[in-house]
Amino acid sequence: MPKRDVVSWNTMVIGHGLVFTNMMVLGTRRNQFAFISSLCACASLASVKLGKHIDGYLIRKKFRPNTIVVSSLIDMHSKCGSCEAGFFYLMGNKQGVVLWNPMIYALAQHDHGEEAIQMFDDMMGNGLRPDKITLVVILNACCHAGLVEEGLRLLESIIGGNFFSRSGTLCSLD
């Protein structure tokens, strides 16, 4: 590679997450895109070891990731099968539903329906309003966990809270 800068390394990282380690060894500057690309590669390869290595690096360096990097971390942990509710609460400041939705979804996909519901309740307790994706995700969590009554309660709570109209939510039910 004739020019070893952040752009050329990011291009390589997209193809394979292990290149990230080489960037670290050579002291190449890493930006948000390098982390996103590396974490996406780890998720695609189900490379939990490398993904946790990157996660640890972010923590050690006190790197302040943007929302997309945090979302990539959530995706990587979920696809590598390492998602527990406790982990997600350590993810730091989650100001919008854009980060709560994938956490709730990941818990639902890994048969943690009750934890997904608890996370939804925590999201609401933090004053965040669910969006339509949140509604689908939480109903999906209830469906996967066999929590039909809880799903109906949550649906009524969301509709009763005037978050959405009844006609806009009916297509979400299965």
UniProtKB/TrEMBL annotation:
Keyword RNA-binding in annotation: no
Alphabetized Pfam families for the sequence: PPR_2 (PF13041)
UniProt cross-references to PROSITE patterns, sorted A to Z: PPR (PS51375)
InterPro entries for this protein: PPR_At4g14850-like_plant, PPR_rpt, TPR-like_helical_dom_sf
Keywords: Membrane, Repeat, Transmembrane, Transmembrane helix
PPR repeat positions: 96-130
Transmembrane segments: 7-27
UniProt entry tagged with the keyword Lipid metabolism: no
GO MF annotations in UniProt: RNA binding
Family matches, as NCBIfam families: PPR
Protein name: Pentatricopeptide repeat-containing protein
UniProt source species: Populus alba x Populus x berolinensis
